[in-house]
Amino acid sequence: MRATIRDIALAANVSIGTVSRALKKQSGLTEQTRIHVQRIASQLGYNEANLRQGKIRRLTFLLHRQHNNFVASPFFSHVLHGVETACRERSIVPTVLSIGPADNVMEQIRLHEPDALAVAGFMEPEVLESLTKTGKPVVLIDLWAPGFRSVNIDNLGGALAATRHLMALGRQRLAFVSGPLSHYSIAQRALGYRQALFEAGRLFDPRLEITLQPGQELQQQAAAAIHTLLQSGPPPDAIFCYNDATALAVMNACQARGLRIPEDIALVGFDNIDGAASAAPPLTTLAVDKEALGRMGMQLLLDDAPAQTEVVLPVELIQRASTLGSGALA
């Protein structure tokens, strides 16, 4: 039988990830370790052509359980579609694996038998660390961590554009409805919101920033967020939401209280999901090419991009009636 990376790791008494880095001549190893691994590989007759990214035939798309409801969170269904399209073009077989921190990730990956891994959205650091031990190429999509190749949208720039847009309309008290800041993309959007206020010489008011929690009913959380914001002193006259699903729930909560959008509160979302343009009023948002995220992630794998390679895709502010009034074009 042909020797595998696992065989070399056992014979050399090192991890699979160490073997992969040694054979690919990547940084992070001592020269002594690199020579030791390469000697064992040669003794076992390992064919280094197996390391070429062109040999990828099976890809596993990993998604955290909090993202796996494609109806409630349509963002990642489009990302997955981009991955699937790229896989079809290259005769790669994709599978989807939904995991959480309590799962035996290594065992699940072994059952899928992938040649490469694409991780989308939030993932616990300990899970990412375990993935490096597989020795398989990994790309992060809509996620960033040191030592990994990744592709993201311009979350910071999009949040800056959204907040500046609201200030340019003369809005004075700008609230931000956020998700968990442990998510890289959300943390970047929160940073953009705060940076735009700072650049405009406005003081950041922590009472105007509300954080929603995953796994809880969105409409109820949105209603509670609006109640809290309205009790925070002078009520906000604009709200930037970290994604469109949240913005639409906030819109419903505002309208249920008799608030007019945008006359009383202007509203901006992020992602430009399908329901944004058909909302009443249509939602101002940041357009994201979600399928391009998936395709670019596959490209980084196939090009064998170096670790820590980061690609950032642009976003576009789409101005609609939720900030501009009834005269705006959807």
Describe how the helices and strands are arranged:
Layout: H1 5-12, H2 16-24, H3 31-44, E1 58-64, H4 75-89, E2 93-99, H5 105-112, E3 116-120, H6 125-132, E4 138-141, E5 149-153, H7 155-168, E6 174-178, H8 184-199, E7 209-211, H9 218-230, E8 238-241, H10 244-256, E9 266-268, H11 274-277, E10 285-287, H12 290-302, E11 310-313, E12 316-318, H13 321-324
Parallel strand pairs: 1-2, 1-3, 3-4, 4-5, 5-11, 6-7, 6-8, 8-9
Antiparallel strand pairs: 10-12
Helix pairs in contact: 1-2, 1-3, 2-3, 4-12, 7-8, 9-10
- Poorly predicted segments: none
Strand line-up across the major sheet? 2-1-3-4-5-11
Average of per-residue pLDDT values: 89
**Major sheet:** 6 strands, parallel
Helicity, as a percent range: 40-55%
Helix-strand pattern: HHHEHEHEHEEHEHEHEHEHEHEEH
How far the N terminus sits from the C terminus, by CA atoms, comes to 62 Å
Net shape: elongated
Q: Give the strand content.
A: 15-25%
User: Over all CA atoms, what is the radius of gyration?
Assistant: 23 Å
